[in-house]
Structures are given as structure tokens and as C-alpha cells.
Amino acid sequence: GAVVSQHPSRVICKSGTSVKIECRSLDFQATTMFWYRQFPKKSLMLMATSNEGSKATYEQGVEKDKFLINHASLTLSTLTVTSAHPEDSSFYICSAAGGAEISYNEQFFGPGTRLTVL
Amino acid sequence: DAKTTQPNSMESNEEEPVHLPCNHSTISGTDYIHWYRQLPSQGPEYVIHGLTSNVNNRMASLAIAEDRKSSTLILHRATLRDAAVYYCILRLSGYALNFGKGTSLLVTP
Predict the structure, then answer these.
(1) Interface test with chain A among B1, B5, B35, B38, by most A beta carbons within 10 Å
(2) What is the percent of chain A where pLDDT is above 90?
(3) How many CB atoms lie within 10 A of CB A72?
(4) Which chain A residues are within 8 Å of B46, Cβ to Cβ?
(5) For chain B, which end, N or C, has fewer CB atoms within 10 Å of the first or last residue's CB respectively?
(6) Assign residue A75 a region: left if phi > 0, alpha if psi is -120 to 50, beta otherwise?
């Protein structure tokens, strides 16, 4: 199956700093990438949908100025958590879909990034 | 979005079949039925999807009721590596997945 990577796998930062998380589709071109957040013992919550070359669409309640998403190419999307606070500590997961090489019905998920804000 | 209802947890013995149920009584005609699973501290993994007909792949089978208001994911021989949270999700083609609480499957030796 298609592979999606995320970097870093885990990050610890001080409150007030910004953290960038990368999501890459390694062997296919993803027209759409999705960003999810998951708190402990909870399900995944969709944060935003990102299409290559256009602005991301954010879900209700997700601050676009706090969670900056850039999808500059068909293989890379980045999520930047700006001025992170302890309540932003979570497991951030991206997924990729679309492109000519894969079925648009299937999403491929990255391994996730564990963010801890002190 | 049409909602799905799954049992919170299920338990199975290793090497036995597992039937994971999902109710989706408000499903629309264009909703695909997707199943994903998530192992601890990992991203979700695609399992199977279908629209109207039953589906089989190397991982599992998906049985869809004739009225499409329910479906069942079938793992033919559960292994310890199948212990995960299984999510049943309705999705329009090309749109994001909205995860519910899923079913936590425990597999015992």
C-alpha cells in the first residue's frame, strides 16, 4: 500500500514556542491531505482538509491562525502549531488521499506525531 | 453526517472468527461504508470499504445488509496482532473521514 510519513514522531517544546509537523506521501501524489488530532483515550478529530495549492478548510472550532497548514506540493503538507500551550499537547495524525496512482476511496495515514507542550 | 453505532468493546479468542457489527440506519445512497483500525500509538490503517455488495480482501470481509442500514466486518481468524480499535465510518467518495468511538477488540490467546 501507499506510504505516508510524518516528522517528527514526537516533540517536546516549551509553552509559547511554535512547532512544525511534516506529512509526506512517499510513493504517490496526494491531491488532498487531512489533519487529525487525537487526545488520550479519545477518537480522532478532523482539524482541517488541505488541497494542494489552495487554502486549507478548517473544521468548526479549529483556529486557523493557531494551526497553520501549508500544502505546497503533491507530496508534502505541514502543520504548524503556533504559540503552543499545554492544552495543545496531543497526537497529531495526517492522512493523504487522491492522485492517479491510488484509489480515491482509500486514505493512507501517517504514524502520528506526539506533541507535548511543557 | 450520517452516524454509525458500534459496541464499545468486544473480545475474541485467537484463531477464531470475529464479527464486528455496525449500525448506520441513516445512511444515504451515496455513502460508502469504510472500516479502519488503529493500533495503540499508531495512525489508523485502512481495512476495507464497500457500497452495496459484500467485499473481501486479504485482511477481512465486509458483509452489508440488503437495506444498507447495517454492516459487519468479519475477521476470519483473529490473531493477537488484530487487537485494535475498529472504526466503521460512512463517507462520500473523496471526503474526510469522521471517526466515531469505534469498537475496541481484545484478542486473547
Answers:
(1) B38
(2) 73
(3) 10
(4) 1, 106-108
(5) C
(6) alpha
